[in-house]
Specification:
- By secondary structure, the protein is of the alpha/beta class.
- 40% of the residues lie in helices and 13% in strands.
- Helix 7 (184-187) links the parallel strand 5 and strand 6.
- The longest helix has 39 residues, at 236-274.
- 48% of the residues are buried.
- The structure holds pyridoxal-5'-phosphate.
- Pyridoxal-5'-phosphate is lined by residues 57-59, 62, 95, 97, 143, 147, 172, 174-175, 195, 206.
- It catalyses: (sulfur carrier)-H + L-cysteine = (sulfur carrier)-SH + L-alanine.
- It comes from Shuttleworthella satelles DSM 14600.
- Residues 4-273 form the Aminotransferase class V domain.
Length: 398
């Protein structure tokens, strides 16, 4: 967490401990602090403060977006063909906060779900979305950027198509929020989830942006907090810290993007020199070797628009590389012994690694899936650390 963030939070853990819903004077300090944080969070995505609703994190915001969309339609609402309106479209590479919630909604008989495929770079094709949209589709939920391979989706195009079909568009922006420019109005998204801890804020705080014209209802019942939309006493220090983290993120965003992007490119280049069979998973940044031509590139979609007209379609801080013939699990252990923490697949109940559903969705075999490593770069990552990582990889791989 950032020092500035902790400093902003501390008074709300100590002297300003009032409950914002109370009527005594102490309450107004907490209530005012939440109002300021709401402005700060809104400002980072071009929203209005009253469109921001604080949650316990990205997972709650994602669950609320999906369940809230279903709450908007009456169970009795039917299409001309007599189908009840409860079809939701998402993608195969979403975070489990979306995928598991969708599965549960299907099990509960509340939703019918279509998961769109992605191309080998992890991008959803607008043509596929067009084909999947139906008269009974109520919501399309596509992540802004993927947490494993850093691919950024063509949100504006996908949101346009969704609106033409009369449905709402939600994006899980947990990985993109504060990392790349995002403007909800320009992108045309109706709902957006974000999380504080991805931008050096406190863990356990997040938000859902809800476009002001949508009468979204609360997913949990209780008090009248967050204008009756999210019951429960607010996590005041968390929300204040989230607001402070948004201010820092906005200020530092262009520099971080440039710096992290350059370091990411350096790590990819070094890894490919060290191990010529290495293959980058996810979109290839411009200027780093030969870009493979994705189907979206051929359709011209990528150059027309992107979140904030990005120089490339990969998150600045994400590197995910397959080292064919190697075991990612073993590489992780050897890297950790050199003080380098990376990740791979997802931890399963037994403590070992399950293959990643994202890497499977972009077409990797199980062997290549188990040979892939992810490196996450942050604002404190230095060139020396990248060189140290590349040197360690060289020793370990050889
Ligand atoms: N969505 C994505 C894409 C994520 O990467 C994460 C967390 O890493 C989440 C949702 C869940 O967010 P939180 O941990 O704040 O609940």
């Amino acid at each position: 967490m950032r020092g500035e963030v902790l400093e902003a939070m501390l008074p709300y853990l100590t002297e300003h401990y009032g409950n914002p819903s109370a009527t005594y004077g102490l309450a107004s300090e907490a209530a005012n602090a939440i109002a300021i944080a709401r402005e700060q969070a809104a400002d980072l995505i071009g929203a209005k403060p009253h469109e921001i609703f604080f949650t316990s994190g990205g997972t709650e915001a994602d669950n609320w977006a999906l369940r809230g969309a279903l709450l908007l339609v009456e169970t009795s609402m039917r299409t001309a063909e007599g189908k009840s309106k409860r079809h939701i479209i998402s993608s195969r590479i979403e975070h489990q906060a979306i995928l598991r919630c969708l599965k549960r909604l299907e099990e509960e008989g509340l939703a019918e779900v279509t998961l769109l495929p992605v191309d080998r770079e992890g991008l959803v094709s607008p043509a596929d979305l067009k084909d999947a949209l139906r008269p009974d589709t109520i919501l399309v939920s596509i992540m802004a950027a993927n947490n494993e391979i850093g691919s950024m989706e063509p949100l504006a195009k996908l949101a346009d198509l969704t609106h033409e079909a009369g449905a709402l568009f939600h994006t899980d922006a947990v990985q993109a929020f504060g990392q790349i420019p995002l403007d909800v109005k320009k992108l045309g998204v109706d709902l957006l989830s974000a999380s504080a801890h991805k931008i050096y804020g406190p863990k356990g705080t997040g938000m859902l942006y809800v476009r002001e014209t949508i009468p979204f209802r609360s997913m949990i019942q209780g008090g009248a907090q967050e204008k009756n939309r999210r019951a429960g006493t607010e996590n005041v220090p968390g929300i204040v810290g989230f607001g402070a983290a948004c201010v820092c993120a906005k200020k530092t965003l262009p520099d971080r993007m440039r710096r992290e992007g350059a370091l990411r490119n350096l790590l990819i280049k070094r890894a490919e020199e060290i191990y010529p069979a290495a293959r980058l998973n996810g979109p290839r940044p411009k200027g780093v070797g030969l870009a493979h031509r994705s189907s979206l590139l051929e359709q011209g979609t990528r150059d027309e628009e992107g979140p904030g007209k990005m120089p490339d379609w990969r998150l600045p801080g994400n590197v995910n590389i397959c080292f064919p013939g190697k075991s990612a699990e073993l590489l992780l252990i050897m890297l950790e012994a050199e003080g380098i923490l990376a990740s791979a697949g997802s931890a399963c109940a037994s403590g070992s690694l399950d293959p990643s559903h994202v890497l499977s969705a972009i077409g990797l075999s199980e062997d290549d899936n188990r040979a892939s490593l992810r490196f996450s770069l942050g604002e404190e990552t230095s060139r020396e650390e990248i060189e140290k990582t590349a040197d360690a990889l060289e020793r370990i791989l050889k």
